[in-house]
Amino acid sequence: MPKLTFEKQLSRLEEVVNKLEAENCDLDASVKLFEEGITLSKELSQKLETVKFKVQELKKKGSQFMATPFDTELAEDANGEE
Question: Is the distance from CB of 36 to CB of 16 less than 8 angstroms?
């Protein structure tokens, strides 16, 4: 299964939070949702850190911008998928 884009992961995290806040889940379902939410949160944080690093590197290069690809497994392809 291909990994989800940042936006799709964020949307799924919002769904998980809404389900947990609804308080109509049993304990086992709530724990599974919580685990999924933690995983999504970590993945989203890692992606944001990668983007932050890229932006900082581009700012350092300034007017000497060079189109060199960053070799990272978190980079999304042209279709928005990893």
Answer: yes
pTM: 0.66
Nearest to 4 by CA among 72, 76, 78: 76
Reduce the DSSP state of residue 28 to 3 states and report it: helix
pLDDT digits (tens, 9 = 90+) for 3-32: 789 999 999 999 999 999 987 888 899 999
- DSSP 8-class letter at 25: S
CA–CA separation, 25 vs 18, rounded Å? 11
Query: What is the phi/psi pair of residue 32, to 5°?
Result: -65, -45
Tell how far CA 15 is from the center of its chain: 15
